[in-house]
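Hi F.,

I've been meaning to write this up properly since the lab meeting, where we talked about keeping a consistent format for the predictions we share between groups. The idea is simple: the sequence comes first, exactly as it goes in, then the structure tokens exactly as they come out, then a line or two of notes. No screenshots and no reformatting. I'm using this chain as the first example so we have something concrete to point to.
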Amino acid sequence: MIEVVVPEVSEEVKQLIVSYWHFEEGDHVDEGVDVVELATEKATFNIAAPSTGVIKEIFFEEGDIVSIGDILAVVEEDEE
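Output, unedited:
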């Protein structure tokens, strides 16, 4: 399992809001494709899938507040 983690965006930003999930649990994603959009007071940005596979679990819903380092979801990698 590969974790989708909230990255550090700047030294000032400690918390963000999950604004939109592009996929749901059970959906197949390709590495590099945007899976979730996060927002701060000043900007929004997307986090891409860290690997190709299936989203096994999403830990936060749209509207939830998350912190740097939080695990947003896990992706089960495709077997080669």
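Notes:
Residues 2-77 form a domain with the OB fold (Dihydrolipoamide Acetyltransferase, E2P) fold (CATH 2.40.50.100).
The beta strands are 2-5, 15-21, 28-29, 34-39, 44-48, 53-58, 65-67, 71-77.

If this format works for you, I'll send the rest the same way.

G.
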